[in-house]
Amino acid sequence: MSIKNKRVLVWMLVVGTGFAAAQEPLTVAAAIRKAWTDQAGLKAGQAMVESRQAEAEGYRDLRLPTLTLKAQGVRTNEPMMAFGIKLNQARIGMADFNPLTLNHPDPIGAYGGSVVVQQALYTGGRITAARRAGEYMAQAEQASQERRKQETAQLVVEAYFGTQVAEQALRWVDDSRTWIQGMEDFVGARVNQGLMLESELLRLKASHAQVDAQKADVVRQLRLARSGLGLLTGSGPVEGPLATPLEPTASVAPETGQGTAFRGDLVASDLQAKAAHEGTVAAKGNMLPEVGLEVGAGTLHHSWSEKGNWTWAAVGVKWKVFSAPDLAKAKAARAQERAASDMRTFKQQQADHEVRVAKEAIVAAQARFAAAKSALAAAEESKRLREARHREGLAPLIEVLDADAAIQGARTLILQSLFELRISRAGLDLATGNPIEGVTP
Of 95, 167, 219, 331, which residue is least crowded by CB atoms under 10 Å? Predict the structure, then answer.
């Protein structure tokens, strides 16, 4: 084999391998996990979680002491500063008490620095409340992120099975086109033989054009569904086959006692209410006394050998007996706490409503699916009989077309009911906080 042929063979193998990988079937579970890892919206949500966690770490560090280093250089002839600088440099002499020198000192320069350690001993509970509020908010953001992931999973389920609905509808439209083309050939031959009226052939051509229009609409829906699925999974339009069947493997009979204990949004609202309460505690602490400790050391140089050093330690108490802005902040914090508590109650009521709606939707979808299957079987049998009678010249074409329309309607109802069943199951899982389609991180 020549080198050129070998290169062609290798290129064909590589392309074939890439094509096979691109056409690998995609399950709904894989689509959900891909959305969780690759979707930009969820990545932004995770960044918000990390931001809240960093803020919580900052609040926890409020209880640690503060270390301040300061370096300075100064030159001045301001009388008080000049005398103080000399005093800090430990080089005051009798001549410095001369009134002329005190009133009109020569410019003096100095350089030095200080180190100060400050530690809050008591702050009215503000630090502890801020630390707890930060932790609650970080946990709430994490719970909200979990909820966002579940909501994304539900949207993936909708787009995934919406794509399958469009694909099945396209197959059925192609079946209808094939059947109408066969009827056209049969009726056209009979018209040429003078055994049928040309109006029947024209009616078939009109039905053929209508089916072609339906196919164009279904193709559009299919492309939009695949594009939406790609958007949710963080990629371009999904082109490969979908492996998870549209019809559920087992019927669902939801238990009436199914609760909502694991919903991320409920957990987040509860944590937000706790954080708001801690915010009220912190706001009240602003009006309480504050006790602090300060320890420091300083030095001021005239030259490397002429310098003064000093240290200090102090404990102080500060108390804002009255502060209109702090009173207003405390009032606002109490209002925010009430708002968070009421929102938590509303979220729970909303969750209970969503559970009831999802359960009813599942029951209704299952009933519609059973009815649609019976209707499809009856319509197919009716069409078979009417078509046979039409070929014998015993039934008009309109009866055959009516039977075909009944089949199309039953097929549409089957697809709608199956789609609603899968979406309702995902909605029930979302409402109760259970893994959608059984997929867990």
Answer: 95
Cβ neighbors of 18 (< 8 A, separation 6 or more) are none
> How far apart, in whole angstroms, are the C-alpha atoms of residue 60 and residue 130?
8
> The pTM is what?
0.79
Question: Which of 326 and 18 is assigned the larger pLDDT?
Answer: 326
Q: CA nearest 311: which of 80, 119, 117, 120?
A: 117
Three-class HEC string of the chain: CCHHHHHHHHHHHHHHHHHHHHCCCECHHHHHHHHHHHCHHHHHHHHHHHHHHHHHHHHHHHHCCEEEEEEEEEEECCHHHHHHHHHHCCCCCHHHHCHHHHHCCCCEEEEEEEEEEEEEEECCCHHHHHHHHHHHHHHHHHHHHHHHHHHHHHHHHHHHHHHHHHHHHHHHHHHHHHHHHHHHHHHHHHHHCCCCCHHHHHHHHHHHHHHHHHHHHHHHHHHHHHHHHHHHHCCCCCCCCECCCCCCCCCCCCCCCCCCCCCHHHHHHHHHHHHHHHHHHHHHHCCCCEEEEEEEEEEEECCCCCEEEEEEEEEEEECCCCCHHHHHHHHHHHHHHHHHHHHHHHHHHHHHHHHHHHHHHHHHHHHHHHHHHHHHHHHHHHHHHHHHHHHCCCCCHHHHHHHHHHHHHHHHHHHHHHHHHHHHHHHHHHHHCCCHHHCCC
- The amino acid that residue 435 corresponds to is P
Mean pLDDT of 77-91: 88
Chain position carrying tokens 């020569």 = 106
Does residue 13 surpass a pLDDT of 50? no
From CA 167, how far away is CA 25, in angstroms rounded?
15
| pLDDT band for position 361 (cuts 50, 70, 90) | very high
Rounded average pLDDT over 242-264:
68
- Nearest-5° Cα angle at 84, 78 to 89: 125
